[in-house]
């Protein structure tokens, strides 16, 4: 199985590790309640390095991504990211995703 760049940190802090999409990924540390309280009161980190990345570029890239996702991309400027989702035609969610505005040209990731 593949390991993310943060694998050694997950292992060091005693994460319960499982196979997820071909990667060894943490699903829990101390307890769900302890993690919830930590994120609410301090900070949490989610390792997304196992996720795929697609770069869409070209004259109609903005319009394509605008129609593919549920949020308004016009509020993004280069270097910014937007949490969004991609839906099926019936409105069900395919998956959540992050949309990055990479440059002033029509490039999104």
Quick description:
The chain has helices at 7-12, 32-41, 61-68, and strands at 2-3, 16-20, 23-28, 56-57, 81-87, 93-100, 107-108.
Describe the structure.
By secondary structure, this protein is α+β, with helices and mostly antiparallel strands. It folds into two domains: 40 residues, no CATH class; 53 residues, Aminomethyltransferase beta-barrel domains (Alpha-Beta Plaits, 2-Layer Sandwich), CATH 3.30.70.1400. 22% of the residues lie in helices and 29% in strands. The strands form three sheets. A three-stranded mixed β-sheet has the order 1-3-2. Strands 4-7 form a two-stranded antiparallel ribbon. It has a two-stranded antiparallel sheet with strand order 5-6. A hairpin with a 2-residue loop joins strand 2 and strand 3. It is elongated, with a radius of gyration of 17 Å. The model has no long low-confidence stretch (mean pLDDT 89).
Order of helices and strands: EHEEHEHEEE
Give the total of domains.
2
Please identify the oligomeric state.
single chain
- In CATH terms, the superfamily of the largest domain is Aminomethyltransferase beta-barrel domains
CATH-defined architecture of the largest domain:
2-Layer Sandwich
Q: Note poorly predicted spans.
A: none
Helix and strand content put the structural class at: alpha+beta
Distance between the termini: 26 Å
Specify the overall morphology.
elongated
Overall pLDDT confidence: 89
By CATH reckoning, the class of the largest domain would read Alpha Beta
Continuous helix count: 3
Share of helical residues: 10-25%
Which strand-content bin applies to the residues?
Answer: 25-35%
